[in-house]
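User: two proteins, same treatment. go.

Assistant:
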Amino acid sequence: MVAVTLLAYAPAMRTGFIWDDGLYVTGNPDVTRPGSFHRIWVGRQPSVEQYYPLTLTTFWVEYRLWGPNPTGYHVTNILLHAVAAVLAWRVLRRLGVPGAWLGAMLFALHPVAVATTAWITARKSLLSLVFAASSVLAFLRFDEERRYRWYVTSVVLFLLALLGKTAVMPLPAVLLLAVWWRRGRVGSRDVLRVAPFFALAVGLAAVTVWFEHSLAQPRPGLALGVATRLAVAGRAVWFYLAKAVVPVGLTVVYKRWPIDPGRVSPWIPLAAWTIPAAGWWWFRRKRWLRPATLAFAYYVLMLLPVLGFVGIAFMEYAWVADHWQYYSLVGLCALGGAAGRRLCGRRPLTALPGAIAAAAVLTLFFVLTWQRAALYHDTVTLWTDNIRKNPEAPVAYFNRGCFYLGKRDLDKALADLTRAIELDPGIAAFYNNRGCVHFYRRNLEEALADLTRAIELDPAMADAYRNRAMVFFFREDYDRAWADITTCQALGGRVDPKLLMDLRSASGRNR
């Protein structure tokens, strides 16, 4: 399983840093500075707007091993995904789920998992799933042997999973689901045993919410009403199911469909869930329905944190994302493995065709995963593919434009950043970067207009003040340049020492 996973993800080993990888790794002073390790855990002036210290610790260690070389980080991600698949196999085996190996292999090779495995920043999901699966294994051992060392081990592993990413917080409910699968009921003693897990989940979730709300800038696009969130959740689950069953047309940023709670159409997907619910109620006593109940209950439980009930920054771009169903994917793959095992082992006439079908699906997943991983080769390849599949994704144009800006391909950068602003004129970073393009082209008036607009949208954007200071400097407006530099420093921004010296010299003041 590990060998096949490594082979399927071989193209991702040769990819670079994409999107916000620099924010988490190469551009994160808490990771790159030798004496900054403690800042990752105490949370003082964090470089990212989340409290995931275990994830950042792995980046801190790896930066000491291979520095800014992205290959080592990608290999670590792929190995973590392979380990998660192996642990999923062991959990399914211990639960007595048929076709455990096939289900785990489907998970290992599923194309949807590429969005998590090939993206260095998504290390938090990989790491938390590894510890979460280990926690489940330890809890199942405790349930069998009643040795409290396994119970303590399970609690500690769950805490580590939360420190990797708190989106794994529904795991305590999954433990109760496993108890129901084994014994057909959940007693009060089982609930008490899982209570510490719930306490840890709520506590770390509160810390995460505090970090994101106190450190992040207000996001008007996430101010949604209860009705809107319900409508988004109802459709999102159907979307995820469709991509899990037929993993084609995958991309990074999907179209953010409009939601108007006052109309009937947004409520149709949510209302459609009454059909499978009615079917389940009608056949609930049938033994063959228990595996499907386990799989779908797990699937929905692990999706709950990302269905829109809680505001997530990424939802400014899209309601759904492939990397958000990474945890849940295990449930559907396990159901697929169980169905395949039953098909192969029940009758001799269907055994060979069933085995051929299973091999065909695994082969197809392998090819699709290979192709999808290859798209993560570089920023231009990834976002060009995204634009082809979703031409209305402003963040795709923005990221590609930033890449062109870094390469000083100013014409392409200007075109992409202008298109991003046309699609979403309310994002400060779009104007800040286009202002930089205008500055490099020596269009100072256009640069000044864009950078001023960026500051209006986000008065705490230190980079915009620094960039506008450069414009004022070239316009010989030294007093306003110095005022912007001072504001940039007050906001914690970095300033080139040479610029400070030139400003002092040009203004003729002893500052």
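Protein 2:
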Amino acid sequence: MATEGQGWDTSTAFIRRSFKASIEHARRAQGQECPDLFEAYRLLGQGLHTLEDLMAHSNWVEISLRKLGHEEVFCHVGDNVTVNSPQGPVPPLVTGTFGGADFLHSLLGEGMDKLSQTSMTDVAAEMAASQNSDTESEFSKLKDLLGGFMSKSGGDSNAKMSKAEALKASSAAYHFE
């Protein structure tokens, strides 16, 4: 969402271009089913998806709640991390992935494209069981399940599993205050 006019493309400009092109195609379609109408819908979805990603993959909602006076909301950057704004120090907007499914997508990369929805449902169920019963055996079952998926998608599954184990250990060692 960076400041425009600095020599790089921004998501704000991309959203604006998508919506403008969607309107142009919709006007050409004049309400009739045709390629222009379908393109208008596609461009509208493209712009909305990008806009939705701000809320889905950042701490925007948490910062907004803080701005509304809910000081107990954790903004995913720590209580001592702030940036200066005209209204004083505020938590910075950070983007990335939030949540278990997003973690799986980033960990498995292209292999995710090769998995069926049913397979992902199995993975999500195993993750929920693992979170509810933080035992080593539950993690081991999840590790075996993911290892099987990764071996089918190609690549170095051992390196990815080692990375997952390192991330788990790092996560377990960190305690928020």
